[in-house]
Amino acid sequence: MKGFEFLGKLLYAAPLALFGIFHFMNASSMSGMVPSYLPIREAWVYLTGLALILAAVAILTGKKAKLATLLLGVMILSFALLIHLSGFMNGNATSSSMFLKDITIAGAAFFMSSKLKN
What we know:
The chain is mainly alpha-helical. It is built from 5 helices and no strands.
């Protein structure tokens, strides 16, 4: 069962790290998704990219993983609500997919946080 535990962590953390890397690679185009009331929109993309990478590292190493997954859940749920919910409510297919993806990732992060001991 330990092998499946590691595999589960890897399958969860690796895409998070890749999402984080994509934030750094595409910051200028992704900054358009940051709400306009926030200043320095591109900086928010870099910050969230860093947070995704750090969460992935914490999950894989087990260092501060409980806190990291809790904060990850809050961050991703806020993305779902602040960025994708309106499009989801209007029936936009892309926003709906992103909303559902984000609440799935957030739910898994909250579940993981509740199960970790550190």
